Amino acid sequence: MARDLEAQRAMNSEQLAQRVKMGDHLDIARVIEHFALFTGRKEADAARAQLTAEGFATSLKRSGWSKFELRVTQTATIEAHEVDDMVCRVFKVIERNHGSYDGWGGPLAYPPTLGGTS
């Protein structure tokens, strides 16, 4: 779990480098998921409302006895500047509402094959 935004940015760079090694095409849009944990329902609901207002899709579920997990999604490409921008927006809302950002992920994306055969 990233403790601050700069640490998260460093993790973004590492994740993107690994994705490129696996053949991911960062310029192809896909659903990106962000995760955050909250100890209070009120704070989780506030973050959810703010992120929804910013155009993200959200879902909230109880995680154990005393935590709430917020899932935030958006379809986007994941080129470095776009990931940093998106993560910064989500991270700041989570932090402002006393939550803990737990990272992001999404599927690898490959261009369609020509001719429809592999």
UniProtKB/TrEMBL annotation:
<feature type="domain" description="Regulator of ribonuclease activity B">
    <location>
        <begin position="11"/>
        <end position="105"/>
    </location>
</feature>
<dbReference type="Pfam" id="PF06877">
    <property type="entry name" value="RraB"/>
</dbReference>
<protein>
    <recommendedName>
        <fullName>Regulator of ribonuclease activity B domain-containing protein</fullName>
    </recommendedName>
</protein>
<dbReference type="InterPro" id="IPR009671">
    <property type="entry name" value="RraB_dom"/>
</dbReference>
<dbReference type="InterPro" id="IPR036701">
    <property type="entry name" value="RraB-like_sf"/>
</dbReference>
